Amino acid sequence: MGTRRTYGSYNDGCATAHALDLIGERWTMIVVRELLLGPKRFAHLQQDVQGIGPSVLAQRLQHLESEGIAERRHLPAPADVDVYALTERGLRLEAVNTALATWAADSPGLLWDADMSPDTLVLAMRAHARPRVDRADPTVVALHLVDSRREGAAPVAYTATMTDERTTVVRDAAGPAAPHAVLRATTRALKRVIIGGAALEPSPDLQVEGERGAVDALVRATALHA
Prior knowledge:
The protein is an alpha+beta fold. It is built from 9 helices and 7 strands. The strands form 2 sheets. A 5-stranded mixed sheet has the order 5-4-3-6-7, covered by helices on one side. A two-stranded antiparallel ribbon has the order 1-2. The termini are far apart. This is Transcriptional regulator, HxlR family. InterPro entries: HTH_HxlR, WH-like_DNA-bd_sf, WH_DNA-bd_sf.
């Protein structure tokens, strides 16, 4: 198979065409998406980007490195591992990811019942995020998401903070010291609430500890439809 020709090679000087030369090849933007919330090891990327082979993943990461969008870093002991991370330029692609997700949300072909990785679901929550309007003091929820696509997957920790100015959700391995509530859920269960509009009902796949009102506020602040 020959090398894919770029739009630039056809004398197309449009910046959009150049952007597609950088991130438009199959899997590239999906790899970027999975790095937007923080660095990951190669093996973890392979788990999160289901369907991609190791050679293709390596090629996409090499391309992103060569374009200054991603970089490989070595974490010192005790981790002592190599990870891939987005550069400052790469992190600006969250706005692109948000715009694409918002544009496609009303597509009749969107697979509403398909699963999402933990980071992908949190990125959707960030895309829909609104300030908390009923309380000025910060409200903090520790969020632990388990990837529904993989049996035995370990939970991924995030911290959601709501104020009257904004709502943020970040990946946070340490977790907040004293959250108002803890929400533990599978990605499938929380997606039904955040994107599908289902009521937040405790179940084996969705558990609330602490202030239920704080979790309800998080849903109101990050659901697709307020």
